[in-house]
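Input (structure):
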């Protein structure tokens, strides 16, 4: 079970969402979602496949537009920003994709250098190298600096994907299914890394998953998306202390003997 991060600052909201609705044609995915993320917090969004978890974080990152609702990220209303303002805000949001999104033709070093060259043009090579060494050390893969992504295991690729997101020092981390496709031991390593990133870089994070072991290990708070709305929220134990059959079924399926 996660030990609550003592540095969570409940007086500081880094994300505030009210009444978010999103439909594709006449299929309503999000039917009025309210959500707050506090400074320093790891918030887990749980839900079955297709419930709109990815849609939610894409709206937060400004990659999809909401139909209705207020989406405030780091004090700015995302859907009122100009494209330039949105680009600046996006640099403060690290999006860790499910497939790690590494460039296969580039070494680990080049994958990590790429965002720095693109977004931090003022950094010289020595500073870039220092930054690359620091994030690789943080994810425990200093020795992989000259390897190609194809030479890495799934768990290592996830770590490099997280390092590449961290290299721009985001204030918010969005993790999309961080343990998908990994064995239980490698998953636990990634869960530990998510907690380590929270402590070391003082990030606020949303972790979307249907892996309850992950939710229990990383979540300071857990919310459960069911039928387009958050039906349950609290600590992991609070969320599952319910007679709601849909929530119980989700739990039993994950922890089946
Ligand atoms: N750009 C899009 N156009 C049309 N429909 C979409 C689009 N993006 C998502 N959807 C639909 O919205 C629903 C929610 O998708 P979403 O990817 O958010 O699910 P999820 O909860 O993240 O599921 P999973 O755990 O499988 O990734 C799905 O039915 C999906 O088909």
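Output (sequence):
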């Amino acid at each position: 079970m996660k030990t609550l991060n003592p540095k969570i600052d409940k007086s500081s909201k880094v994300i505030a969402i009210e009444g978010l609705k999103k439909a594709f044609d006449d299929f309503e995915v999000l039917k009025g979602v309210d959500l707050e993320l506090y400074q320093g917090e790891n918030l887990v969004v749980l839900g079955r496949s297709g419930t709109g978890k990815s849609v939610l974080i894409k709206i937060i990152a400004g990659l999809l537009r909401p139909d209705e609702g207020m989406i405030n990220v780091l004090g700015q209303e995302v859907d009122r920003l100009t494209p330039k303002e949105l680009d600046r805000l996006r640099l403060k949001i690290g999006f860790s994709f499910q497939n790690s999104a590494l460039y296969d033709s580039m070494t680990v070093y080049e994958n990590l250098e790429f965002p720095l060259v693109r977004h931090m043009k003022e950094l010289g090579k020595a500073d870039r190298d220092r930054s690359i060494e620091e994030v690789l050390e943080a994810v425990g893969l200093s020795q992989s600096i000259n390897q190609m992504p194809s030479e890495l295991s799934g768990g290592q690729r996830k770590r490099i994907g997280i390092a590449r997101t961290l290299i721009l020092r985001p204030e918010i981390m969005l993790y999309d299914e961080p343990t998908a496709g990994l064995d239980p031991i490698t998953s636990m390593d990634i869960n530990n890394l998510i907690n380590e990133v929270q402590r070391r870089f003082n990030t606020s994070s949303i972790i979307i998953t249907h892996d309850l072991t992950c939710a229990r290990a990383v979540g300071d708070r857990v919310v459960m998306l069911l039928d387009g709305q958050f039906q349950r929220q609290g600590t992991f134990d609070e969320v599952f202390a319910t007679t709601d059959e849909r929530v119980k079924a989700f739990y039993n399926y994950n922890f089946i003997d």
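Notes: The chain has a mean pLDDT of 91. The chain is about 35% helix and 25% strand.
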